[in-house]
Amino acid sequence: MIRQVARRRQANRQEPLVEDPRKPVRDTRTRNRVFLMTVVAAIVVGFWLTR
């Protein structure tokens, strides 16, 4: 079992040497902010509707 854990850790270390040029570059900070704003808006509207 210890060997399996060690193998998994080694497998996770392997990173792709060359990134796929077909993949679009994503701005995760903006996506996270939009997601957070959407969640906050949904919560606010939910509280407003339950009043």
From TrEMBL:
Species whose genome carries this gene: Halomonas ventosae
Protein name: Uncharacterized protein
Biased composition (Basic residues): 1-11
Top-level division of the source organism's lineage: Bacteria
Keywords: Membrane, Transmembrane, Transmembrane helix
Region (Disordered), start-end ranges: 1-24
TM spans (from-to): 32-50
